[in-house]
Every structure is written in C-alpha cells, then in structure tokens.
Amino acid sequence: MEPTARFVEASTCSLLRHKGMYVTSVPDQDEGPPAQGASATAFWCLCTQKALGPDGQPVHPAACRAGSGRACCVE
Questions:
Q1: pLDDT in tens for each of the 75 residues of the chain?
Q2: I want to staple 5 with a disulfide (CB 3.0 to 4.6 A). Which of 21, 38, 52, 60 is the partner?
Q3: Total domains in the fold of the chain
C-alpha cells in the first residue's frame, strides 16, 4: 500500500502543497482522521509558491477543491 499525502484528499487541487507531503513515512494510525490538525498545517500553492493562490485568496484544502468556484483549481 502506497502512503497518501495527509491532509489532502483526491478532490483537492493538485497544486496544493504542505510539508508533510515530502516526508516518506506512513502516517501513524493512532493519530486520528487526516482532517484532524489540518488547520495547524501550513499550505502553499505550487503555482505561486505562497500561501495565496493565483487569485489572491488563501490556500487550504477546504478552499482549494473541485467545485469551490476558484478558477485556479486544477484537478
């Protein structure tokens, strides 16, 4: 089984990044659901390399997903 990027779901923009994506370890199963702690995680946009997307709005899994209305969202 291949590890998945914690805090980021399949419906989330493919340009959304966080530091945990670059760690090659399997998440601790006792940690709870992936959404827990996501508010304390720093996210950035791969396009802008900042915490703001190309539209000038903050990036976060809840805001950067299909159907969010953001033109910059890439599936």
A1: 344 455 556 788 989 998 878 776 666 666 555 544 455 678 999 999 999 999 999 999 889 988 888 999 887
A2: 21
A3: 1
- In SS3 terms, the chain reads as CCCCCCCCCCCECCCEEEHHHHCCCCCCHHHCCCCCCHHHCCEEECCCCCCECCCCCECCCCCCECCCCCCCCCC
- Evaluate the CA torsion angle 9, 69, 54, 58 in order and state its sign: negative
Closest to 53 in 3D by CA, of 39, 70, 38? 70
Predicted TM-score (pTM) of the model is 0.66
